[in-house]
Write a structure and sequence with these properties.
heterodimer; A: alpha/beta; Rossmann fold; 2 domains; six-stranded mixed beta sheet; 18 helices; 22 strands; B: mainly alpha; ABC transporter involved in vitamin B12 uptake, BtuC; 3 strands
């Protein structure tokens, strides 16, 4: 077909360590269409985008632009060929003006001198095409997120982009701003520019998309016409049925003793949690979109976020002011990013595992530390070659087990797990949840925040859906179909998104 | 993401892994290898090098910068830097001199000087840690301020009239074996080094220093008092700088307000040359000791060969650059940063 701008044919991307991020993904984008990309976290969306935008080279498979096979070595390469990517974290320099940003690295002029007038002209023209209500001299840092996105789109236009990739542009926008971006997208498609639009919100795809391709587990499942495809088939394609994780194993009823009782917790950015409790031996899941307050809530419980709280921990009042307070009361946090927050990567395994437990001591005996750590790591079935090894050398799953070992050794009774399975493969995930269930059986109270509903659906006793900083609904996964919980997260969002 | 069952030849690298690790291990302790190489060269170049007298002198001369470099190692291990040490050396020496000149007993005067150094360090560390200001800036301001205060205290002139015993202490040599006397300054340097090595290896504080430098966020979320630890390492650096200043004063037998200018750079160079990472979390005082002595031996060779200080500066600088490039290469090879 001549109206296909870009086609990706059976692209595969394997990262070191044999992690398959993308497996034979195929996609074709027509001139002037809005092509949506839909997929859960870890489905391979970003890898596919990065291959198209030239940030990754595919391990195998091909990419054809306007019928010519291409191999982009860098994002610049792709941009010059007419493919521009607008990142979620906008790659603009806040201190510079819109015009300077748009022509960064391609400043018009001669002999190292900037032709300011020409730059203003180019920028003004591109900004007009996206209907911006600000001039080329506006400082980018002072613009709203929506206007920054317009700047990024205008930049793509100055590059004569024929395909613009937008990675979850809606994440930081409110409804009116999003409507403006949509109007710009429609205007651009009329000029023949194709848009690859990534989102996991159904409503948006309905509003703007022509066709939609679903990704799951690194594979492209199917491409649908947006009009005429029932929502259910889309949801089905995206979520699939990951049997290993989805099967609920029977859970022993939790003990009666209350571990954590939150009557009210209020913190920054509208965090407002009411009447949430966890019993000993219970696993409570926190679901919701990114930015719904799951991480903030866990940080507040760990004393790492200033908040007003009326809480009890095992019957006694609890208001931690720093992580040390929470740890002393038997609270543990397995943070979202194990490499940046959980581990000292260049330090030995046993030294990482002992770190929280050293506070009551003054002197260190390395052999004794190793003797303490070894059985705990064995109990978590961690694979390593020597305790002196830097944690950096372990696989992701085993690194996460070292993080768990820190708190097992410390004897923590309330575990706060923030995206514990992030970046792990399916086998490691299953193992991790088996471990979490085991800890609960020993009486630990556990809160798991995850953006992957399948995981918490299969493993939790109760699931709280978070939305804009509040805990809106609580489900018992044994009595509720999974898709109902999913809808509470997605639909609840669309309904409640009004102002700000 | 799924894991592939069959392996892809492009993404697996197995062959020669162990050999490479061995090579990397040798490279990691390159400062020791280089040190002994330089010692051998020095011995070949000059018959005067490997004599008891010359070796004693080497340690004596290295003691001032060496003690400062040990404090600096603590600071750099937490991924900070202390530019103020040269000024604190002068300040500590000046406080001790002034108090002794006004009749204080030497031990009390020295105690006051050490306390001053520790407080100055703790103050700068606390500003860096609690106000989240880069330590580079805080200690740069400290460098200027403390030097200024030192000039003010002495009106810019050297302070003499120190107790006779104090001056003798500076050039005292302890007969360790019959016929082999070792300078007391050098012994103090080695003692400080030994204590520092034990603290880093066998105390919780030492463990916390490494953890804070390796990943401050992970350390904080493990309940470590990260800001207190940073304040602590600066206090140690200030304390050792002041101690160094007292020893220098004893050796010179006067309180010199212009003493130790630029000493911070020698100390930092030694720490980095000794394999401690400027990004924090890796290294230790063993490397620092070897590096301090290496630089001292180099200076010694130049003197024995009769080459002037211009050569010394040039070659020393080049060696530091080469060592840093080497460490950099090792890091990137092991996939760090």
């Amino acid at each position: 077909m001549s109206d296909v701008v870009l086609s990706v044919d059976r692209a595969t991307k394997i990262f070191p360590g044999n992690v398959v991020a993308l497996e034979e993904a195929s996609l074709s984008i027509r001139r002037g269409e809005v092509h949506c990309l839909l997929g859960a976290n870890g489905a391979g969306k970003s890898t596919l985008l990065k291959i198209i935008a030239g940030a990754h080279l595919p391990t195998s498979g091909s990419l054809t632009l306007d019928g010519v096979p291409r191999r982009f070595r860098s994002p610049l390469d792709a941009a010059q060929a007419g493919i521009s990517m607008i990142y979620q974290e906008l790659d603009l320099v806040p201190q510079l003006s819109a015009a300077q940003n748009m022509l960064l690295g391609r400043v018009p002029g001669r002999w190292g001198l900037v032709d300011r007038r020409r730059r203003q002209e180019i920028a003004r023209e591109a900004l007009a095409r996206v209907g911006a209500n600000f001039g080329p001299d506006a400082q980018v840092g002072a613009l709203s997120i929506a206007n920054q996105q317009l700047t990024a789109i205008a930049r793509a236009l100055t590059l004569d982009a024929r395909l613009i990739i937008m990675d979850e542009p809606s994440a930081a926008l409110n409804e009116t701003e999003l409507e403006r971006i949509f109007a710009v997208i429609r205007a651009l498609t009329r000029q023949g520019i194709a848009i690859l639009y990534v989102s996991h919100r159904m409503g948006e795809i309905r509003a703007i998309g022509d066709r939609v391709t679903a990704l799951r587990g690194g594979r492209t499942i199917e491409t649908f016409d947006v009009a005429g495809t029932p929502e259910r088939s889309l949801v089905e394609a995206v979520l699939g049925r990951d049997q290993a994780l989805l099967e609920r194993s029977p859970r022993r009823p939790a003990r009666d003793a209350l571990a954590l009782g939150v009557r009210r917790l209020r913190g920054p950015h509208g965090l407002d949690i009411a009447d949430l409790s966890v019993r000993e031996g219970e696993i409570v899941g926190l679901s919701g979109l990114n930015g719904s307050g799951r991480t903030s809530f866990l940080r507040a419980l760990f004393g790492d976020l200033r908040c007003e709280a009326d809480m009890t921990l095992r019957g006694a009042p609890f208001s931690p002011r720093r992580p040390g307070d929470a740890i002393a009361r038997g609270v543990a946090l397995v943070p979202e990013d194990r490499k940046l927050q959980g581990l000292v990567l260049d330090s030995a395994i046993y030294r990482n595992a002992m770190l929280p437990s050293l506070r009551r001591r003054r002197l260190i005996a390395h052999p004794a530390m190793r003797r303490t750590v070894a059985p705990v790591l064995a109990g978590l079935s961690t694979r390593y070659s020597a305790l002196e090894q830097p944690v950096r050398q372990l696989s992701g799953g085993n690194q996460q087990k070292v993080v768990f070992a820190k708190w097992v050794i410390e004897g923590s009774r309330l575990l706060l797990l923030d995206e514990p399975s992030r970046g792990l493969d399916v086998g490691a995930k299953a193992e991790l949840y088996a471990l979490i269930r085991g800890l609960a059986e020993q009486g630990a109270a556990i809160i798991v925040a995850s953006s992957e509903l399948d995981e918490i659906y299969a493993n939790c006793d109760r699931i709280w859906v978070f939305h804009e900083g509040r805990n809106v609904r609580c489900f018992d996964p044994a009595l509720t179909p999974r898709d109902d919980i999913l809808k509470a997260g997605l639909v609840g969002h669309l309904v409640a998104e009004t102002a700000s | 993401m799924n894991t592939l069952t069959q392996t892809d030849p492009k993404t697996t690298r197995r062959g020669g892994f162990d050999a490479r690790r061995l090579g990397a291990l040798m490279l990691r302790y390159n400062f020791i290898v280089i040190f002994f190489a330089v010692v051998v060269i020095a011995t070949l170049l000059s018959d005067d090098f490997l004599t008891v007298r010359n070796i004693s002198n080497l340690f004596q001369q290295a003691s001032v910068v060496g003690i400062v470099a040990i404090g600096m190692t603590f600071v750099i291990l937490t991924a900070n830097i202390d530019l103020s040490v040269g000024s604190v050396v002068a300040c500590g020496g000046m406080v001790a001199s002034l108090l002794m000149a006004s009749g204080w007993p030497p031990l009390l005067a020295i105690g006051a000087a050490l306390l001053t150094g520790a407080c100055l360090g703790a103050l700068m560390g606390a500003i860096a840690a609690y106000a989240a200001v880069p330590s580079f800036i805080v200690t740069l301001a400290g460098l200027v301020t403390v030097r200024g205060v030192t000039y003010l205290m002495s009106n810019g002139v050297p302070i003499g009239g120190l107790p006779r015993g104090f001056g003798q202490f500076g050039s005292l040599a302890v007969p360790l074996l019959p016929g082999f006397a070792f300078p007391v300054l050098a012994l103090l340097f080695l003692a400080v080094w030994g204590i520092a090595a034990l603290v880093l290896r066998y105390t919780v504080f030492g463990e916390y220093v490494f953890a804070t430098g390796g990943n401050a966020e992970a350390a904080r979320l493990s309940g470590l008092p990260v800001r207190l630890i940073v304040t602590g390492v600066f206090a140690i650096s200030g304390l050792l700088a002041a101690f160094s200043g007292v020893l220098l004063t004893a050796r010179l037998r006067i309180g010199q307000p212009t003493a130790a200018q630029g000493l911070e750079l020698d100390a930092i160079a030694a720490v980095v040359l000794g394999g401690t990472s400027l990004f924090g979390g890796r290294g230790g005082v063993v490397g620092t000791l070897f590096a301090v002595m290496l630089l001292q031996v180099l200076r010694n060779i130049f003197n024995l060969l009769g080459l002037g200080s211009f050569y010394q500066m040039t070659i020393t600088g080049l060696i530091i650059i080469a060592a840093i490039l080497l460490n950099r290469a090792i890091d990137s090879r092991q996939g760090r940063r």
